[in-house]
Amino acid sequence: MTVDEDSRRLAELGYKQELARTWSGFSNFAISFSIISILAGCFTTFGQAWNNGGPVAISWGWPIISVFILIIGLCMAELVSAYPTAGGIYWWAAKMGRPVHGWFTGWLNLIGLVAVTASVDYGAATFLNITLNRFFGLQVSLGTTFTIFVVVLLLHALINIFSHRLISVLQNVSVWWHVFGAAIIVAILAFGPDSHQSFGFVFTETVNNSGFADSSYWFYVLPLGFLLTQYTITGFDACAHVSEETKGAATAAARGLWQSIFFSAIGGWILLLAFLFAATDVAAVNEGGGFVGAIFDSALPGNLATAIFAISAIGQFFCGMSCVTSMSRMTYAFSRDGAVPGWRLWSRVDRNRTPVNATLAGCAVAALLTLPALYAPPGTTTPVAFYAVVSIAVIGLYLAFIIPIWLRLRMGDRFVPGPWTLGRKYKVMCWIAVIEIAVVCVYFVLPFVPAGVPGDAEFTWTAVNYAPIAVGVVLVAIGLWWVLSARKWFTGPRRTVEESVVEQPYGSSS
Q: Is Membrane one of the keywords (predicted)?
């Protein structure tokens, strides 16, 4: 498909070609691959899985949950092929359902993308702080980490504002950094340690450092450990959000979406298994709160451990950059349709055809959302607020995913697919996706530690998983907003083309 054909298809969906369509199919794949980032999620949330399940939650949990996520991705790939717009899943929901579906989907997606940006950049700041400490002796503290986090957010905003062409190039560089960086880390962990764990340990050992009773291991503690996989492999809707900038988007964005999940799942599993085989000093890992760096420090010479921290920190920086790109495009698209307060400001593009205001606003909100990370419960190294932001990201994004997938299921044969389609397999795959998302969203609003349970003898507000509070408040707010006001004026996607263009299936003449 040529750029002119892409623009024509976009006009059929109701929009002018305002963003510059300069991205290749590989660049489209690259942004989701970078946001998934096995050099980010596998490192920053490793402790969640270690403390809530141990090696079993990682060696078995990762591939099993990855299969479910791939099914979700395949369902979404069919939708982006039919509707390649920057609004992505919000647009799909409004198109297949009613304005109310688009309203809730858009806000959940936007909240999820802001939370992903916040959590990724905070994780990058954590690893940059550790790396700088190892090189220059910079103090490792919550205050220093938060300062670095704000600086990283600002840098990502400036990079995204500077040039859409630069972003495209850096996305491509990011892919190879993740591929070769992960390969180098696996090689270091394979040949650097004096000894390795057994297969029995990696695939059968259980750990419960959560504080909850062992009797709740299988139905409560272990599922909390799956947050590692569910959080790492997310943000793949970015392929849709940059589809208006991608050449041949109807096929390239669909292919980029599912392939980013597939290759990340394989690469991430290999990387995590390398971590587990190198975790010979279990006591050190437990003492470090499950932090993956404890594995490197206990199993490797200092210089090799520092190399791993540096490779991961740079990979996480690339990941955060991609998150800001995706978030800003969604903010732009949702504002373009008048859904965000001050929408005229956020839907404006500069002379480089970049949504500058949307980029700055999203980064500012991400910083505010992460303020509770300045505080941590006594005796812990990673603030519970970090995992809360992670949960907000997962819940916001996956709740947004479930709406268009359910609407696609409901449409049945009335759905007109694009060139990439699931065929008759859509029924079973959409049902699996809907059920998996529903289960995930229930688990990730639950307390992570006993001290976060109201009424517990050691209850403290710094240990509370505030994801249900944040998500609940937002759902109530946007629900009330809809009932009291938005339903009277929000009609879903607004056409920006001057002349009426009849929407046609692919392959028909215009």
A: yes
| SS3 per-residue string spanning 39-64 | CCHHHHCHHHHHHEECHHHHHCHHHH
Residue 75 lies inside a defined structural domain of this protein: yes
Phi, psi of 141 (to 5 degrees): -150, 165
How many residues would you count in the chain? 510
Total-model pTM = 0.86
The residue segments making up the domain with residue 306 are: 24-489
Run of H or E including 324: helix 302-336
* pLDDT for position 510: 30
In the predicted structure, residue 433 carries a pLDDT above the cut 90 = yes
Task: Flag whether 120 is in a domain.
Answer: yes
- Tell me if 146 is assigned to some domain: yes
Distance CA(314)–CA(293), nearest Å, equals 16
Residue 244 near residue 85 (C-beta atoms within 8 A) = yes
Task: Please check whether residue 507 lies inside any domain of the structure.
Answer: no
Residue 447's CATH number: 1.20.1740.10
Residue range 263-277, pLDDT digits in tens: 999 999 999 999 999
Q: At 501, is the pLDDT very low, low, confident or very high (cuts 50, 70, 90)?
A: very low
Query: Facing residues of 53 across strands?
Result: 207
Report residue 179 CA to chain centroid gap: 19
- Which amino acid does the sequence have at 208? N
Under a CB-based contact definition with an 8 Å cutoff, are residues 224 and 446 in contact? yes
List residues bridging with 52 in a β-sheet. Answer: 208
Q: At what angle do helices 89-96 and 61-82 cross, to 10 degrees?
A: 60
Q: Output DSSP code: residue 246.
A: B
Can you tell me the distance from the alpha carbon of 384 to that of 382, in angstroms, rounded to the nearest whole number?
A: 6
- For 406-414, the CB contacts below 8 A with 24+ separation are 406/430, 406/434, 407/92, 407/93, 407/96, 407/97, 407/101, 408/75, 408/78, 408/79, 408/92, 408/96, 409/434, 410/96, 411/96
Compute how many other C-beta atoms are within 10 angstroms of the C-beta atom of residue 372: 18
Distance of alpha carbon 490 from alpha carbon 99, whole angstroms: 7
Q: What is the 3-state secondary structure (H, E, C) of 348-416?
A: CCCCCCCCHHHHHHHHHHHHHHCHHHHCCCCCCCCCHHHHHHHHHHHHHHHHHHHHHHHHHHHHHHHCC
User: Which of 334, 319, 320, 328 lies closest to 353, judged by CA?
Assistant: 328
Look at the chain and report how many structural domains it folds into: 1
Task: Specify the pLDDT at position 382.
Answer: 62
Encoded tokens for 403: 């709406």
The structure tokens listed for 485 are: 């006001």
